[in-house]
Design brief:
single chain, 200 residues, mainly beta, nine-stranded antiparallel sheet, 8% helix, 52% strand, globular
Length: 200
């Protein structure tokens, strides 16, 4: 089992320089600048306390040379960035599943850990899972403490469906995750889709 506590501290608004980072990268890849930065939130200190509990090797089975397990999880987030409760499950299939608790990803997401412990020279697995959230507050949709004149109605229940793979070789882990995030507000035309790569 794995318990994770995390405290995120930072700033939201123009002082975070999101516009410069995003459009600067768009210049590098010769893409059009992103619109909408004139409507961003005002400067505000942001804080978020997160907790997650994860079980590993639930229903573990040996399938010939491969292993399979289920990893259920639950958790919550409190703060002026986001307040929600979440729960979900991950299925993994591969070799040496005991090496880690899954790969870390950008939150909110399926849980994972930066820590891993290779027990032989090589291990790998593929995974798929879902994380469902009941959202009480999301600063990026509900607005900040200052006047915010954009009327957006957020979805109270959202989910992330994720799939990917991880390869562990000696002291190196390489992973990729593909994410489909459900619509987060009324009027959103499509779910968000994005990929995430990581090297540990």
């Amino acid at each position: 089992q794995l318990d994770t506590w995390a405290l995120n501290l930072g700033i939201v608004g123009p002082s975070a320089h999101g516009e410069q980072v995003q459009n600067g990268f768009h210049d590098v890849i010769s893409s059009a600048h992103a619109n909408g930065w004139d409507n961003q939130l005002s400067d505000e200190f942001g804080y978020q306390l997160l907790y997650e509990h994860r079980w590993r090797n639930i229903g573990k089975k040996q399938l010939g040379p491969l292993e399979m397990d289920f990893s259920p999880h639950l958790g919550f987030s409190l703060g002026n960035i986001a307040t929600y409760a979440n729960a979900g499950i991950t299925l993994r299939l591969g070799r040496d599943l005991r090496n880690d608790f899954g790969v870390p990803r950008i939150r909110p997401s399926l849980p994972g850990s930066a820590f891993f412990q290779p027990r032989d020279g090589f291990g790998w697995y593929v995974f798929a899972g879902i994380d469902a959230r009941g959202v009480a507050y999301n600063m990026f949709l509900d607005g900040d403490a200052s006047t915010y004149d954009v009327d957006i109605r957020k979805e109270t229940f959202v989910y992330d469906a994720q799939a990917g793979f991880a390869v562990i070789w000696r002291k190196l882990r390489v992973a990729y995750t593909y994410v489909i995030r459900s619509r987060e507000f009324e009027g959103q035309q499509q779910p968000d889709r994005f990929g995430s790569g990581g090297v540990t």
